[in-house]
Write a structure and sequence with these properties.
globular, 3 helices, mainly alpha, 97 residues, single chain
């Protein structure tokens, strides 16, 4: 079971920008810089709070279903989850750069 908290706390724009920077850095490391054969790294940045509408985590931009599925997902599914969360976050996928 996930330890994602629900929070009505609205993050300040500078906090949101910092979290997106962290996520973009983690995406580059997980999707471009990782060695072949290594597991696909989690996008979690330890900001485990759901958005007010509960659509996704404010930190990693995964949905509850994606968070639950992550531990059992194979590499292909994890890469798909990365792609979707980067779109949700409004970030470019570093694999297409």
């Amino acid at each position: 079971m996930s330890s994602v908290a629900n929070s009505s706390e609205v993050l300040a724009p500078e906090q949101q920008a910092q979290q997106r920077k962290q996520l973009a850095w983690k995406a580059r490391a997980a999707l471009v810089g990782a060695d072949a054969g290594e597991p696909v790294a989690s996008p979690c940045i330890n900001v485990c709070r759901m958005t007010e509408d509960r659509s996704h985590c404010q930190g990693c931009f995964r949905t509850i279903d994606e968070i639950r599925a992550w531990s059992k997902a194979d590499a292909a599914e994890r890469l798909q989850i990365w792609g979707r969360l980067l779109q949700r976050a409004g970030l470019n996928d570093p694999r297409s750069a």
